[in-house]
């Protein structure tokens, strides 16, 4: 009889412990699901904003500056390969970017840089991309495209 009472007590204790832990687990899981849902909503919103940003002139200018300053290793398939870094200094890169966005009919964020940017472009970029930006016989990327190939690939 004493053994039965001990066994009943152990079963009762285990059941109560199980129910308490299950309740805590459910509460924790609910909180995590709520957090995950908020995170997912935030990530979706950020992704949507990033997709919209990728089509902005500001993004285009920063992309062009980045390629001038750091080169491109996107393997876009052009005959002369990837662009190396350092064809112009950082200050000139900003001005070149302002000019290059005008090649596809866009308004740069700093229109006052376009004239000087054109001069830098002709002396640093025109030899490969052509004075018109179309990329000399398809050997180099066409900079007059609505969306540059490197951005399109992203």
TrEMBL record:
Domain of life from the UniProt record: Bacteria
Xref: InterPro entries: Cyt_c-like_dom, Cyt_c-like_dom_sf
Domain Cytochrome c: from-to ranges: 114-145
Keyword flag Mitochondrion: no
Pfam entry (one): Cytochrom_C
Record's keyword annotation contains Iron: yes
UniProt entry keywords in alphabetical sequence: Heme, Iron, Metal-binding
GO molecular function terms attached to this record: electron transfer activity; heme binding; metal ion binding
Entry protein name: Cytochrome c domain-containing protein
Protein source organism: Hydrogenimonas thermophila
